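Our platform keeps sequence and structure together, in a single record for each protein. Because each token names a local backbone shape, the row as a whole describes the fold. One such record is reproduced below, unchanged from the form in which we store it:
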Amino acid sequence: MTWFKKTRRPERPGDNEERTVRTEGLFVKCQGCEEMLLKREMEENLSVCPRCGHHHRISAAERLTLTMDNDEWVELDAELSSNDPLHFVDTKSYRTRLRQMQESTKLRDALITAQGEIGGRPAIVCAMELGFVGGSLGAVVGEKITRAIELTIKERSALVVFSASGGARMQEGAISLMQMAKISAALARLDEQGLPFISVLTDPTTGGVTASYAMLGDLNIAEPGAQIGFAGPRVIEQTIKQKLPEGFQRAEFLLEHGMLDAVVERKDLKQFITNSLDFMSPNGKAHKT
């Protein structure tokens, strides 16, 4: 005998939609262990999976927030923008692609240059934006990094560059390749002045960026699991006709084979950079002009 009877409320238009919206965007899938995690939990852990430790990619602005003291900095050369020197067209015109990237990222190009302090020490920091044409190295990125180096020399401060890139920007042809030599020459002048340059390689750092300034730091460090290399693994295998070793082009493999100085977790990165700058600078004290 049924003592209680549950009356079903007739479904109203939008009920299913309401249930979907309530959970939409609350969870993210870890690219490492493929676990579903609360988005809030991931964000609180600096976009690092609390289960497997996989370091997910973050934006250039987030890099600066995690690195600069009190999240305070002055952006430099923000007005610089590419002008499509070759009038390049593939599936769409380069000019159209640039406009779409600028609208989606709110940046003029694939790099943010910031002036501020790290651990109380004056520093110029460049952070590449992977979401802007794959963080590719073009004329604007090359010019902004070169200007950052020149300002570092003028201010007698320190230089930190966070790399995240697919390589040179093919839409600018040889002009993009020239940036490799341009930046490297400027870094040589920085070295002559005895000023510190820390290069931080994040996932991914490949192509012409790896072949130039990303590996020219006084200290080259990387985040765990970051892919670092010049050509892709498949291209290398096809060229040398050999199977590549496990973990090839990952940060830990490069550290083991002497290509990096350290692999540092994201939560420890700012303190590691601060300690390194203290060690590399006279008397371990910040100096301003």
Observations:
- The chain has two domains: 14-56, 57-284.
- DSSP finds ten helices and nine strands in the chain.
- The CA atoms of residues 222 and 263 lie 5 Å apart.
- The radius of gyration is 23 Å.
